[in-house]
Design goal:
Layout lengths: L22 H5 L8 H18 L3 H5 L1 H10 L1 H9 L1
Helix pairs in contact: 2-4
Length: about 80
C-alpha cells in the first residue's frame, strides 16, 4: 500500500519534492486544498462540526484559533495555503 493513499488531497509531487507523509505533511503545509477558497471552506466546515459536536469547552473553543487567523491575518494564511 502506498503511504499517500490515505491523503488524497496531497499536492502532486515533483522530482525535488520532499518525501513527507502523515502528520508531517500537514505541518509542512503540503496537505489540504491548495486553493484558498476551498481551504477556507474546509476549515470552516471542520470548525462548525467541532463546535456542534464537542462535549467540552476546549473542543468548542478550538475552532476559534483558525477563525482568528482568518480574521486578523488573511494575507499570511493565503501565502501559506497557496504556497
Amino acid at each position: 500500500m502506498r503511504p499517500d493513499c490515505c491523503y488524497p488531497r496531497l499536492r502532486p509531487r515533483t522530482a525535488d519534492s520532499p518525501q513527507i507523509f502523515g502528520d508531517d505533511a500537514h505541518l509542512a503545509g503540503l496537505a489540504g486544498p491548495p486553493v484558498l477558497a476551498a481551504w477556507i471552506d474546509e476549515v470552516n466546515d471542520l470548525g462548525v462540526t467541532m463546535k456542534e459536536t464537542s462535549e467540552c469547552g476546549p473542543g468548542r473553543a478550538a475552532p476559534l484559533i483558525t477563525e482568528s487567523l482568518l480574521r486578523y491575518f488573511p494575507d499570511r494564511v493565503a501565502r501559506h495555503v497557496e504556497g
